[in-house]
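Before the break, one more example. Copy the sequence into your notebook; we will annotate it together after we see the structure.
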Amino acid sequence: MDISNISAYTDYLTKQSTSQTKLNNTLTDTDYSKAGEDELLSVCKQFEAYFLEQVFKEMKKTVDCFKEEGSDPNNHLVDFFEEKVIQDLTATSTEKQGLGVAQMLYEQMKRNYNMT
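Here is what the structure looks like once it is written out:
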């Protein structure tokens, strides 16, 4: 195994969990009972984007089974850019149209926090 690019691979793994960490910090650091409607909707959209990202990654795994392992020493760079594209795609799709998960979650949280 070639370990000459180990630092780049470590960077890739660190950046891969960025969206999960960001969402987790947002959810745990804020008391949403005092949040405004815009802030609540923003967090719901972040959750939907993260959910879509996980779905896309799992879908991608079903096609990656045909990719040759070890054929390209720069595969970790390709994986990094694929991750970035998936994150951007999910964020954009959530803002534009979305699945409706953010809206349903938003309505439920408004009821739970008596914001209606």
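The chain has a mean pLDDT of 78. The helical segments are 6-16, 18-28, 37-64, 75-96, 101-112. Try to locate both features in your own notes.
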